[in-house]
Amino acid sequence: MFLSHLECTACGLRHEWTRLQNLCAACQKPLFPTYDLAAVGRVLTREALATREKSLWRYREVLPLPANVDPITLGEGGTPLLPARKFGEQLSMRDLWVKDESQNPTQSFKARGMAVAVSMAKYLGARKLAVPSAGNAGGALAAYAARAGLEAHIFMPRDTPRANIVECRKLGAHVNLIDGLITDCGAEIAGRKVAEGWFDISTLKEPYRVEGKKTLGYELAEQFDWHLPDVIIYPTGGGTGLIGMWKAFDEMEALGWIGSKRPRMFSVQATGCAPIVRAFEAGEKTAAELPDAHTCASGLRVPKAVGDFLMLNILRQSNGGAIAVDDEAMIRVTGEVGATEGLFVAPESAACFAALKSLRSADKIESGARVVIFNTGSGIKYLDCYE
After folding, report:
1. How far is Cα 218 from Cα 215, in angstroms, rounded to an integer?
2. What is the pLDDT of residues 165-187, one digit of tens each?
3. pLDDT of residue 335
4. pLDDT tens-digit series, residues 328-337
5. What is the rounded CA–CA span in Å between residue 360 and residue 286?
6. Mean pLDDT of the region 207-228
7. b/e for 336-371, b at 16 or more Cβ within 10 A?
8. Against a cut of 0.85, is the pTM above it?
9. How far is 89 from 86, CA to CA, in rounded Å?
10. What is the rounded distance in angstroms from the CA atom of residue 265 to the CA atom of residue 246?
11. Pairing of the two strands 3-8 and 31-35
12. Sheet with 151-157: strands ordered across
């Protein structure tokens, strides 16, 4: 095992990884696992990966679970990277790709984070896990907690897509529907977790969901023969995937697997809930909480993200940007992507295709750029949006 310690992303304070941790004890900001990458590099090479299983656990040396502990797994990771030629042709683009995360267990990218987080939570002694969720994170926690033999307590806005609510219940979770937003669900957990004995596994409020998500970056590099794309367009609610990929890029550079060149990172949000877009455009370092957040893309309905400062820093470092898309465009483009590429993408991902159209029209992305859009989930779980 090569995990060294946990380090605060804001103040740098070190924390022990050997017990359950949430946010930094000093400043209440997210913690990142830190590895002895020099030691990793002595035992793991890019070439060795070719012989390993097609799952995110192929990168075991840069994941936190001890080597002698079996992970809680449902076969997550190893998702396809698909060319989107027909959609790309409409925009005079010849190098457009889709990383299709809908092929994960529970049909979304949330499986990656929960597989690692639940594995570590069980190893460190947690018995009851709690999460606020607008949909797919709840389903993923329910599945992996069931697999691990742990209790799952999921708090969801009452208007969460029905498919997600049914999924959580049928996977044995305790589902609590709240009149409000995901932030209200998080507040309910915060007020009850000590008395109830819950470990809070909220986005970036524990250190290991980001580790599962960072494997998106490792897979992308490996699938492109260790050359990163020019542009990544990513739907952003809590932003763990975007943040995790950036962490992966830094780790791979330290391992000597890639160079210093980074993709331009674009965050896509909904016009009814775009705190990161507003903060980016205003030049702010953090994003103010957005009142009355609304969008049919439930995964984007996050009015305040604990990792906002990390996202904004990445967008600026990479010379990327942030763009908002309205719900009508998401629904329309879902059909366009389906008819051209055979993919029934989630509204969050359709927003990325719509954003690409706008970015191309504004000449912010060149026609020859290699661009990757992440389909973070399956449209089948959002049937309410298409009625």
Report:
1. 5
2. 999 999 999 999 999 999 999 99
3. 97
4. 999 999 999 9
5. 27
6. 98
7. bbeebbebbbbbbbbbbbbbbbebbeeeebeeebbb
8. yes
9. 5
10. 9
11. antiparallel
12. 174-178, 151-157, 128-132, 199-200
| Local structure of residue 328 (DSSP, 8 states) | H
The amino acid present at 60, given as its one-letter code, is R
Q: Which tokens in the block code for residue 289?
A: 């909480």
Phi, psi of 382 (to 5 degrees): -120, 35
In whole angstroms, give the CA distance from residue 72 to residue 317.
35
Kindly report, residue by residue over 265-308, the tens digit of the pLDDT.
999 999 999 999 999 999 999 999 998 899 999 899 999 999 99
Residue type at 253 in one-letter notation: E
Distance separating alpha carbons of residues 230 and 202, to the nearest angstrom: 31
The Cα–Cα gap between 163 and 147 comes to 20
Burial annotation 180-191 (CB, 10 A radius, 16+ → b, else e): ebbbebbebbbe
Q: Is 252 exposed, middle or buried (0-12, 13-18, 19+ CB in 10 A)?
A: buried
